[in-house]
Amino acid sequence: MKTGIVKVLTRASRTLATLTALAAASLNVHAQTPLKDVTFLLAAPPGELAFAPFMLADSKGYYAKEGLRVRWVAVHGGADVGKQLAAGNGDLGDALGDTPIILRANGIDVKAVALLGGHPLHQLITRDDRHIARAADLKGKTLSVMSYEDTSYFVTLGILGSAQLTRTDLQVHAGGPSGVWQDVATGKSDALVGTPEWGADVEATGVKVTYRPTDQFTPGMGQAIIASDREIASDPETVRKFVRATLHAMNDIQQDPQASAKEYVAAVPSYSGKLDFVTKVLSYYAKSVFPGPLRPGEFDRAIVEKVQSAYLDEKVVRAAQPVDSLFTNRFIQ
């Protein structure tokens, strides 16, 4: 009887050893599989906190787990991201969900493949000492945007239109990624349209400001991952993997902005010693930008249609594009 038991145990041990060796070999092959290089275009320098989902997905290994190695390249605004992608100078990029509306109307075939939040990225941020309580109060003021080609400028036109104002009723200043908030901090500008962290930058100088999501005035969308039609057709699996990894990181921030802030500070040396600042900004994103009624990353067709109608009304674009050509939810799981 003992001999039989020993033989069974011996066979079981050999089987276990074989399975272990096979698993190890499989892991080793996987580990040795070369990562696919992906060039991702950013609308501003990578240190902007709006890009936290991308930077955390990278530092936490989410892209590597999908078999991707990402190279970050900063260009001049979301519209430029789309133009460069259509020209073949990158694989994927970051812009507002609105951007394909503007670009496709000009013959640039890009599409949004994932939406990073159920609310607009851009906020109307006003100095409290300038007494701007509504959009109409912007008349005669000075307002900063990042650039005249950035979607923050086109959102500004929508805000003005909601109060029957036009571009000529105030001064709109393109300050770049630093000047856009510095001008508000110094008093050169009364307000800005931009990301939540720019408001936090102003507050860090001691100036009190008020944040208003831009969808209080005009339809809008959050930050989005965009790709050219050619990229979507030729390499949909890479698009899917990148989207999945990024949404994973966005969900991490939404679920625990404090822990995500610590991870971000550890990953981005330029924010060393600024944990409180990063926590404040990521908490705002987690509460006021990322949540939405749909699946993470998903576009609401009705909102896309409303944004396009608003752009037509403000003559940002002259002709409507088929709504389904502007975005896709096929990469959302």
Task: Please give a structural write-up.
This is NitT/TauT family transport system substrate-binding protein. Residues 1-31 form the signal peptide. Residues 51-259 form the SsuA/THI5-like domain. One of its GO terms (biological process) is thiamine biosynthetic process. The chain has 333 residues and is an alpha/beta fold. It has two domains: 36-120 and 221-325, Periplasmic binding protein-like II (D-Maltodextrin-Binding Protein, domain 2, 3-Layer(aba) Sandwich), CATH 3.40.190; 123-216, Periplasmic binding protein-like II (D-Maltodextrin-Binding Protein, domain 2, 3-Layer(aba) Sandwich), CATH 3.40.190. The protein is 46% helix and 16% strand. The chain is built from 13 helices and ten strands. The chain is globular, with a radius of gyration of 23 Å. 47% of the residues are buried. Mean pLDDT is 90; it is low at 1-30.
Indicate the topology.
Layout: H1 2-32, E1 36-42, H2 52-59, H3 62-65, E2 68-74, H4 78-86, E3 92-96, H5 99-104, E4 110-116, E5 123-127, E6 142-145, H6 151-162, E7 171-174, H7 176-186, E8 191-194, H8 196-203, E9 209-213, E10 223-228, H9 229-234, H10 236-255, H11 257-267, H12 275-289, H13 301-313
Parallel strand pairs: 1-2, 1-3, 6-7, 6-8
Antiparallel strand pairs: 3-10, 4-10, 5-8, 5-9
Helix pairs in contact: 2-10, 2-11, 7-8, 10-11, 11-12
C-alpha geometry: globular
- Poorly predicted regions are 1-30
Total of helices: 13
Under CATH, the homologous superfamily of the largest domain reads: Periplasmic binding protein-like II
User: Structural class, judged by helices and strands?
Assistant: alpha/beta
Number of strands: 10
- Could you give the order of the helices and strands? HEHHEHEHEEEHEHEHEEHHHHH
Q: Within the CATH hierarchy, at the fold level, what is the topology of the largest domain?
A: D-Maltodextrin-Binding Protein, domain 2
